[in-house]
Design a protein that fits this description.
The complex is a heterodimer. Chain A is built from four helices and four strands; from the N terminus they run E-H-E-E-H-E-H-H. Chain A is an alpha+beta fold. Chain A has a four-stranded antiparallel beta sheet with strand order 2-3-1-4, covered by helices on one side. In chain A, strand 2 and strand 3 form a beta hairpin. Chain A starts with a strand and ends with a helix. Chain B is an all-alpha fold. Chain B is elongated. In chain B, 18% of the residues are buried. Classes of the chains: A alpha+beta, B mainly alpha. At the A-B interface, strand 2, strand 3, strand 4 and helix 3 of A face helix 4 of B.
Amino acid sequence: MNTHYETVIIFSPLLSDDEVKREVSKYTRMVTDGGAAILEERQWGLRQLAFLIEGKSNGIYFIMEFSGPGTLHQKLEVEFKRDENIMRWLTVKLDKDAIEYNDRRRKGLVGKKKDAAEEVKPNIASPVANLQPTA
Amino acid sequence: MATRNPKDIKYLTSQKMVKRPKKFCRFKKYNIRYIDYKETEFLLNFINEQGKILPRRLSGNSLKYQRKVGQAIKRARHLALLPYVTDLLK
């Protein structure tokens, strides 16, 4: 039985793009080698922090969602602690609502109420348009 | 002589006529079951200018979702998406 997890890592802003890529590939490989399947990877890139961490006001955010065995996150945590390029991380176990939410977000259904309203409008307008020729 | 109609004056001070709309739990009403800790703009609805979590008394959340909101805000704080303490957040 695999469990869904979501990990957010904040890398030091001093890393170059190549170094970030190397770090990311290192951890994604570690996850896949640990018998887990990566469902999604997202790079938020350089972002302003809400407060200083290790004297730095920026951080490079990386998010990955994976489903795998429950022992994997302990191995990851050891690596995160050893890694000096990582300022902070958070691994969260996802419940069924969270999984559903993430699926919907991937399909672009979350936070797009404006688009939904635009889709509704033509449906309302179309009966009027249909009526006009008859009238 | 003007007779006083007993219906005219009932109270010495005027009664409050404006009824506040009843608070409700938005998560229950709109069927939101998961609160994403990465959505800081949404979580800003539940913290005050100092970054403190608003009580249920003010936000109207049900207990179940107030716990989830608190959990999400604390996760966001850990990841420096929201501040632990500030002034003039909004």
